[in-house]
Amino acid sequence: MAIAVVGMLDEREEALRVIKEQIEQRGHKALLIDITVGTGAIVPTLKAHVSCDELLALARRNPPASAQKPESVTSMMAEGLTIKVLDLYRAGKLQGIVAITGMTGALICLTAMKALPFGIPKLLISGATAQPAHGAKFADYFAVRDITIMHTVVDTVGMNSLVRTLAVNGAHAICGMVEGLRASPESEKQAIAITEFGFCEKGAHYIRKMLENDYDLVSFHATGLGDKAVMDLLQQNIFKAFIDLVPGAFSEYLLGGNRGFVGPHRLDTAAQLPIAYIFCPGGFDIISCGPMERKDRNDPLWTSRRLAERKLYVQDSARVQARMNAQETEYVAAAAVEKLNRYQNKHRVKVVIPLKGFSSLSTEDAPLHDPLVDQIFVATVKKNLDPAIELIEVDSDINSPIFAAAVSSALARAMQALTAKGSASNHD
Question: Which residue in 82, 117, 213, 321 has the most C-beta neighbors within 10 A?
């Protein structure tokens, strides 16, 4: 097995040499991969184990969709590198990956790193990711992958005391990750994903406490990026169950709220997976619409939904929550049920609804309390939900230990149904 060392030899040969040598001095094998695209001035003397021509040849067999664009060489290099590192990983030959790059190299390497599964050490040594103009672009990579960034402060072309320090530190950092992963025992408990956010954190806490002896609970902060992360990790088959306490990003997509960038497939990811799925309506009472200054700027969300006329909860100048109205609630409930009704093996799906509040903001005496609107959600679900999906109504709010107990019980039944289905399939 080896640690992949990636960069452009015609730009950063000296730094790549230091990283390679330091890794080898730690007793690891270093696999040097050249992603040169012909922009550098160095004629390298260091020979790569995997050349840039080899990567381009791999990409030509499976050209990316962007290959017809002006940046086709960069796109093809990213595709070739991705194919190569995935081949190494699947063959059991990849321990980790470290890259030292500028902007172009960062985009190439991040594409490949994003394709690798959670847990494989990934380190990018670069100053490119700190540029504000490209923040949104890089967020697409960091939001869903455990990629570590070492910001270089200086450019890493040439060799000087600062670049050498960065290269040495980076080499030892990736070695430490690899060695730590090798020494860390895997949990014997089955992993379960759970979504939560501040307005439902007590409920999530109670659920974790009730289940932590039997399961390895992994929480995702359901403010948009966390939703994307759980969707991505579910597809890596890491989890045996998904407690979707806060699927509110789906309603935000439908209504135009701040978490809506997650997109229309928020409730689709678990549909085809062989896992237990517990659906709760956390966050289906609010629209995230901050900052408050949008109210005075004729913001489309504020004007189209007349949010200024509603009950509002202002956490601070940046975060504002508006109460969903009856029409929106019915629409969201119907859309969510339509998604749930498409799930395969419906006995593994449980819908658990707290009748006294979908967040801490809508309980009795809370600023967004509106039980009549909540009842519309419940009635719509009951009317449209497939009878094969169990519906559990709980006479408490979402942050209550009573609700947590109902969720835990529903999970047990869903896991049991999943096991029974698997046993039946084995007998067949």
Answer: 321
Rounded to whole angstroms, how far apart are CA atoms 389 and 413? Answer: 12
Distances (CA, A) of 73 to 38, 64, 84, 105: 10, 10, 16, 12
Q: What confidence tier does 38 reach under pLDDT thresholds 50, 70, 90?
A: confident
**Domain shared by 135 and 215, yes or no:** no
- Given 3-state DSSP classes, what are the helix, strand and coil percentages for the chain, each rounded to the nearest 5? 50, 15, 35
Tell me which residue of 73, 94, 98 sits closest to 85, measured CA to CA. Answer: 94
Q: List alpha helices for 185-311, DSSP H.
A: 201-211, 225-234, 248-255, 300-304
Q: Tens digits of per-residue pLDDT, 376-427?
A: 999 999 999 999 999 999 999 999 999 999 999 999 999 998 887 655 544 4
Q: Please tell me whether the peptide bond between 291 and the residue prior to it is cis, using omega within 30 degrees of 0.
A: yes
d(Cα 217, Cα 190) in Å, to the nearest integer? Answer: 9
pTM above 0.70, yes or no: yes
In this structure, what CATH number is given to the domain that contains residue 101? Answer: 3.40.50.12020
* Exposure of 176 in the CB half-sphere (CA atoms within 13 A): 8
Three-class secondary structure of residue 267 per DSSP: coil
Alpha carbons 171 and 175: distance in angstroms, whole number:
6
- Domain identity same for 331 and 230: yes
Give the sheet arrangement for strand 320-323, strand by strand: 286-288, 320-323, 312-314
On whether the CB atoms of residues 148 and 129 are closer than 8 A, the answer is no
The bridge status of strand 190-196 relative to strand 148-150 is unpaired
**Is residue 30 classed as helix, strand or coil in its secondary structure?**
strand
* Count of domains observed in the chain: 2
Q: Are residues 266 and 338 in the same domain?
A: yes
Name the helix (H) or strand (E) containing 320: strand 320-323
In contact, 262 and 224? CB cutoff 8 Å = yes
Local structure of 186: helix, strand or coil: coil
**Cα(340)–Cα(59) distance, integer angstroms:** 39
CA distances from 156 to 99, 133, 150, 358 (A): 11, 21, 12, 51
Number of helices and strands (H, E) in the chain?
13, 14
16-44 burial, b at 16+ Cβ within 10 Å, e below that, comes to: bbbbbebbeebebebbbbbbbbeebebeb
Q: Are residues 179 and 205 in the same domain?
A: no
Domain limits at 221? 190-427
Asked if 113 and 145 touch (Cβ cutoff 8 Å), the reply is yes
